[in-house]
Fold:
Amino acid sequence: MITKLLEKEGHLLQGMTCQEWKEVVDLLAAPLIAEGAVTEAFAESAKEAAEQFGGYVVLVEDIAFFHGRPEAGVREIAMTLGLLEDPVYLFEKRIKAAFLFAAVDTESHGELLKALAWIMNDETCLELLRDGSDPGIILKKCKEVEEQHEIS
Structure:
C-alpha cells in the first residue's frame, strides 16, 4: 500500500530544503494537488492539525506524519514522502523526513496508519529515512516490510 502510493511520479522527494515545517507540508502537498488527489484546503488542514496538536505529528524520532481531515478536500487516498537536506523543527521536535498522507475516510485513515506502523517498526527503514537514503533503496525496503506483513 505505502510503496504503491510512493512509487508514483513525484511522490518521494529527496534533498528537500525548507526553512520551516509549514514549507515541508506545502512541498509535499504540491504533487497531490497537481494530480487532483487533494485540494489546497487539505494542505491547510494538515498545517492546522499540526499547529493544534503540536509535536504529535513527530511520532517517531526525526520522522513526521502530517495529515489533514478527509472532508478538507481529499478526493482519493494519497501519500508523499520528503527527505530533508537539513532538519526543520516543529515544537522543538526535529524533522529529517516527513510523510503527508490523505485518507478519504476513517477506515482508509486506519489502514494507512497500520501500514505506516509496520514500516516505522523496522529499524532499517527508520535508519534509511533519517539518513535521507536513495529513494529506490527506501522503496525496496518498504516493499519488503509490506510483503513480510502481507500489507496490500
Summary: The beta strands are 12-16, 62-67, 78-90, 93-102. The chain has a mean pLDDT of 94. DSSP finds six helices and four strands in the chain.
